[in-house]
Structures are given as C-alpha cells and as structure tokens.
Amino acid sequence: MSGDISTTALERAGASVTDNALRLINPASLTWEDYEGLGDFLGALGRAYPFWVGDFLNIGEDVFGERFAQIEVNLPHSPQTLANYKSVSKQIPPSRRRKGLSYSTHAEVAYLLPAERDALLAQAAKEGWKREEMREARRAMQGEPIGELPPAKPKTTCPSCGHQWEE
Asked: What are phi and psi of 110, to 5 degrees?
C-alpha cells in the first residue's frame, strides 16, 4: 500500500462503511485481490488513526488554545489515551514518521533525542520491527537490561509474625 490512504480499496470491493459497520454490496463477487486490498486499507487506518487524532488535537490547541480540550468528549478514548496520542504526535512530526510502522512502535522512541529516534525508526522500518523489537532496541541503546527483570529486592522477615517486607 502506498503512503497515502485512499478509499479506492473500499470502492473496488464494493464496500461502504457506517459508524458501526462495514458492508459489501455483493460479497460473493469479491476477489481475493480486492479482499486483500481492503485488509491493507483497514490495517493502514489502524496504524494511522492514533497519529491522526494526535495531530488533530495539536492543531486544535495551536488554533483554539485551551478551548480545543472541549472536543475530547467527541472522541472515544480516555483523557490519558488522548494525551498520549497528542504527545507522541507532537514529539514525532509527520515528516519524521515511518510508513508501515505502528503508532506504538513510534511511541517507544518518542522521547529519545531526535538523532537516536530517527536511527531506530529507520532501522525498524528497514527490518519490519514491531513494538516489542523497538522496545528492546531502545533499551539496549539506553544501556538497560534486555529481556530481564531487575533483581529482587532483599526481604526482611519478622521473627514474631512472619510478615515480610522489602528493605
């Protein structure tokens, strides 16, 4: 699929959408290629949506100031989710985003220095990384343990009752 999301796949498949349904005019006439194109289209929508919402909120704040927050009631997400979409979209402007990578993959590196972020995003796009692979690469870059839990803190046990607590 190209970088721009087009409704061509919907039209070719004879599909229409409403606020709660996807319908096909004649499902029996659907070809595999059209079905696959529709799947690509829906996947692209899912990857793009958090950025669209984040960009929408950032534009609203730039244009309307604090008043933009009133629009949040129209969006089906918690305030925290909307804040995340907005923040990541601001940290990684459209010109720095990589086609084919999910929002969550971008979010893993949103707060790195721009050069570090760009290098990891480029590698992720080249190698087809998902969020978990990006997280491991970010941790390695930051010198964090990879795939390990931190060591357990020592516990002290009360000799009278057996209650344990971390030191």
From this structure: -60, -30
